Amino acid sequence: MKKSNRSIxxxxxxxxxxxxxGNLIGESLKTKLQILSxxxxxxxxxxxxxxxxxxxxxxxxxNLNIAGVVGIILALLLYQRM
Length: 82
Hints:
alpha+beta; two-stranded antiparallel ribbon; 28% strand; flat; transmembrane; membrane; DUF4321 domain-containing protein; transmembrane helix
């Protein structure tokens, strides 16, 4: 794997980890700081393709709140310092 591909993969992993940690913190603190849990749910509803022999289901959804965005920003800053 080339160095640039490895750094892109590392960036994606760090950003996803930041979003997950931020969302977890936002959901756990939503009783004390409600603003952290405000967010949107976006994505593709699952679509099923039945070919008789094979069944494929395509779908993607993401729930991102304010704490998740803060987590992504902190993860990006961490990546830049590396």
